[in-house]
Amino acid sequence: MGHMDHATFGWLTPVLSYAMACTGAALGLRCTVRALAASGRSRRNWLLTAASAIGTGIWTMHFLAMLGFSVSGTDIRYDVPLTVLSLLVAMVVVGAGVFAVGYGRGRGRALFVGGLTTGLGVASMHYLGMAALRLHGEVTFDPVLVAVSVVIAVVAATAALWAALNIKSPKAVAVASLVMGGAVSSMHYTGMIAVGVRVAPSDDVLPGAAAMQFVFPLAVGLGSYLFLTSAFVALSPTAGEREASASAQRPVESAART
Questions:
Q1: Under the phi-then-psi rule, with left for phi > 0, alpha for psi from -120 to 50, and beta for the rest, what region is 32?
Q2: How far apart (Å, rounded) are the C-alpha atoms in residues 180 and 176?
Q3: What are phi and psi of 3, to 5 degrees?
Q4: Measured in whole angstroms, how far is the alpha carbon of residue 125 from the centre of its chain?
Q5: pLDDT tens by residue, 211-257
Q6: Average pLDDT over all residues of the chain
């Protein structure tokens, strides 16, 4: 078995990946709260933004953490199509879960379906990302720890969506996002503990792209998207603020007409 190091750069990659998970969760939860207070096209747009934020956040978390992953005796490369597919799966499946909550009729049923779907989306993204791994040797998984990681993902997603349905305060959403970020990180590292690698040294050139060639630039781009979108959402007025502004303008307009 090859010696695996999950933090080649020390605490840098775990801390950065946790920050990305929290940022994606905070933005996704905030957008979901906005969606539940809206209707029609506005609700749909907020839910789409929430899905892209959560999906992007967990994908960026995973691959930033993977930048610190190394195995003695072999280089590591990533299959580009599978890596991109893992991002798309994260957004689509998480989106299905978020829309289940946003348009579900029964709150309990919507929360169950949404949490299960979103959690499976998180787990699918993780293991698709692991399937994209290319190295000299064989990768194996402990099925018990894999199951535990999936359960963590589902519980974390359900708790986050419950927070979106029941918590409206920005401070409470921030706390919920820290918890969700921790849960997503826990799911990731539980899944990584489940990994075993039997190294078969070889001089053959591995297919795929190195992390710094492909994964790192994409992660930086998606991280920038999260921060810019977070700024946009923070500056966008809520439905209550728009109503208050409209109410304040009515007396001014009436006075102007008289």
A1: alpha
A2: 6
A3: -75, 125
A4: 9
A5: 778 777 887 788 788 878 777 776 666 555 455 444 545 554 555 56
A6: 82
Per-residue pLDDT of 32-72, as tens digits, reads 888 888 888 888 888 888 888 888 888 888 888 888 888 88
Identity of the residue numbered 105: R
Total domains present in the chain: 1
- 3-class state of residue 122 by DSSP: helix
Other CB atoms within 10 Å distance of the CB of residue 221? 11
Structure tokens at 44: 């749909």
- Report the run of H or E that residue 245 belongs to, with start and end: helix 239-257
Reported in sequence order, the residue ranges of 59-105 that DSSP labels E, i.e. its strands, are: 70-71, 76-78
Task: Name the percent of the chain in helix, strand, coil, to the closest 5.
Answer: 75, 10, 15
Residue type, 50: A
What domain range includes position 190? 4-257
